[in-house]
């Protein structure tokens, strides 16, 4: 009951807040202007003693040339004293006469010039003159690919939608916009292709977005965390990508994309675990090569997660498992080291993590020295000083290398993290502990969902059709269907040709 | 519900603390790699454990370390050995067990029993019988070794590939516990600074009853199992020596029962390449045929002689009994009575090809 009471209270409070806002509606324009004038970048003046027009704007977000070239001359020339006549005269589209103070305030804060007539109480002419600082579209840095497009998203949401729409010039590409964040008022756009995307998925996302009560949405990763299906999971639930080509391809598969203003990363979903290990470059290479690379990446994940813990487990509990030829080198490298295998492994793993963290935090120019310090000084010196064994150093370095092969950065971080529970369990119970830990994570993955769709698909539940583009990638002519994961109303992507004709030469 | 699951996850490991294996950190244990058993008297025997200490460093060579003690049971011996050792002794990495010939003649049941009961001992363990004292074989230095135990294991393993039939603890136990077969083990001896496999020791139950020579061991292998990459030498009627290389063979045993009498037939198919015929024209078809005939004759004669000896000893290491048991009308009592007198035929079929890069 207490639960309902608190809900009721909140409901009442919300209502009161709404009332406050409504009463603000009755607040006069001059009161609003008075509040704005507290900031020094707010400019407010009467055009001239004889003119009836008052001009207000924030000089930091308004393109001043528009005001000078297209607004002021017409105010000067215009003999009429009404806003309507002025609106007709000014050669700019998107001008509005608004009588809602609330709306006027919003426009003012998003870069519009407000013109008011002396004597008119509730009306104002709003002219859009937004000046936005944005950087040009640049190369993708996180998801770099050797072949393929070299465009990456930038911070501006309009530029990002432009990049996507350019690749999908169809009216069915729908953009729905929501504003989230009580302070930041961030524009969040949900992109999907109508008719291809399951309406339920869209509704799920829109509902979750609208339910967000948070003061600031600075980046898309905020959204990713807030709307994720399981907040206690270390695994990301949506793929974040900076490649517009990837977004376009994912959209045409029937998935949904979220683009957040101010974030150069778009979120796509619903997604599966294996999708995190497919780089978009896979589609630019021939299918044999891409398949092998994907399998290598998957192997790298297992290697990265399990190798050090297996080392610890085998050396601490299961000496019987070591092959005869490896026994002598292993003992030779281990004997004389003062730490047990677990401490040795944790020290080295932490060293690698420190290097990684230091490399990520330092500016690029100093960052290069980190490699030298890490590689030469710590690596070689630690072995020579007899603090760690050569074999473990190799294993840890390989494991770190393997974890870098994950194409999605967020997933790479997860893999970094889940090595440590494996290590601890390996020390506690040996291989049994590793198995226990693995089962635990497997159970977690089995239960996980992304926007309500199973996360381990197409492996579990087994969907043979979807396997064509998951662990490996079969050629394009076999990818005739959209993945079952997205529940697309139109499953067929294209009709395969029955008999493919041999490609003709120019001489034929 | 969720907190309940969480509680289980925490408490279960705590409850199960007793089931945790005890840690044995690799460099803090004394790994025994070879075990030797020697005869002392009817009650006692001497156990020797060969292990190696590996000094730190990349290029360091292992130092041989041998422990030995006398006692009535292997557990007792292990205790005594433990008293001498600097680190706890573990047997999980044993690769070779050597039985002294004298001990083998008195029976190795006790030792085999303790080996097969130990869960940390692998079934791929090699067992051999030695002519010398097992302790002397383990406690000596061989010229071409990085570790004595490793050297001993390598010698036996290499021979099992090409010259003697495959045998390990698992196979030994199969033969040993079978009612219709008897086990055999490789025979080793020291020769100067080397170890040598010198034949096979044939057992009846757990006692060594006979040994066969190295050459016969190869015939044994031909009759016993399918293999590739063997080598066989034969003297032709004209006195020339010819060797068959890359020999592969596939034996088949058939046991018939006629009028209550068992008859066994070995059908052996041997393929090989004729090499090293110094005075022979190997391109000639007739020569090849002569070689084939000679090899067939040699295999048949030697095999018959060998089997005759097994029958006299009433031991069945070639597991003919196992094959006979597959018959629906098999009668163990009859088989036991008839085995030493029954007729065993050998049908060898040799196919030789000329080879070598020059003609």
Short description:
The complex is a heterodimer of chains A (508) and B (359). By secondary structure, chain A is of the alpha+beta class.
Structure description:
The complex is a heterodimer of chains A (508) and B (359). With 508 residues, chain A is of the alpha+beta class. Chain A has helices spanning 2-25, 29-36, 64-77, 83-89, 101-109, 157-167, 199-210, 220-226, 244-252, 287-316, 324-334, 341-361, 364-384, 390-403, 409-429, 431-447, and strands at residues 42-46, 53-58, 96-98, 112-117, 124-128, 173-180, 186-193, 239-241, 256-260, 266-269, 449-450, 453-454. In chain A, strands 1-2-4-5-3 form a five-stranded antiparallel sheet, sandwiched between helices. In chain A, strands 6-7-9-10-8 form a five-stranded antiparallel sheet, sandwiched between helices. The longest helix of chain A has 30 residues, at 287-316. Chain B has helices at 2-15, 74-84, 101-106, 109-117, 134-138, 148-162, 169-177, 214-224, 285-313, 320-325, 332-339, and strands at residues 30-39, 45-53, 63-71, 89-90, 96-100, 126-130, 184-191, 194-204, 207-213, 227-235, 241-258, 261-275, 343-354. In chain B, the strands form two sheets. In chain B, strands 1, 2, 3, 4, 5, 6, 7, 8 and 9 form a nine-stranded mixed sheet that branches. In chain B, strands 10-11-12-13 form a four-stranded mixed sheet. The relative contact order of chain B is 0.10. The model of chain B has no long low-confidence stretch (mean pLDDT 88). Chains A and B meet through helix 11 of A and loops of B. Chain A: Belongs to the GerABKA family. Chain A: It is found in: Cell membrane; Membrane. Chain A: This is GerA spore germination protein.
List keywords for this structure.
heterodimer; A: alpha+beta; 3 domains; 5-stranded antiparallel β-sheet; 16 helices; 11% strand; B: 359 residues; alpha/beta; GMP Synthetase, Chain A, domain 3; 2 domains; 9-stranded mixed β-sheet; 4-stranded mixed β-sheet
